[in-house]
Amino acid sequence: MYPITVNREILDPQFLAWTLLATEFTAYAEAESKRARMPKLNRDQLLTWKAPLPSIAVQKRLVAVLSERMAGSERLLGAACSQIEEVSRLPAALLRRAFSGEL
User: Fold this and answer.
1) Which residue pairs, CB below 8 angstroms and at least 24 apart, start in 56-62?
2) Which pLDDT score is estimated for 29?
3) Could you read off the pLDDT of 30-45 as tens digits, one per residue?
């Protein structure tokens, strides 16, 4: 793990974080890694990686879009988990109704 300091005039830290989560970076890390299980880069390998660098305005727009979509995905995941929880309670509710004579 390496601390990374960015020049905020040309690189948005959140844009960098999203970039490092991208499949392109993961593929680079896996290709450069000499470890069998988990990719690991040394500092030189990390700093050698080339990534596109759009203008700071474009970076901020992309971060906003990605953050909004991630929040939407998290809301959908929460709703799906709630529905799964409700479905898992159905057999118990059905049995209560059956034993109380409601069915």
Assistant:
1) 56/9, 56/10, 56/11, 56/12, 59/11, 59/12, 59/15, 60/12, 60/15, 62/15, 62/18
2) 87
3) 888 876 677 788 888 8
Q: What is the residue extent of each domain of the chain?
A: 11-53, 54-103
Give SS3 for 35. Answer: coil
Task: Tell me the C-alpha distance between 18 and 12, whole Å.
Answer: 10
Alpha-carbon Rg for the chain, nearest whole angstrom, is 23
pTM score above 0.85 = no
Scanning the structure block, which residue is given the tokens 């890390």?
Answer: 29
SS3 66: helix
For residue 48, give the 3-state DSSP assignment.
Answer: helix
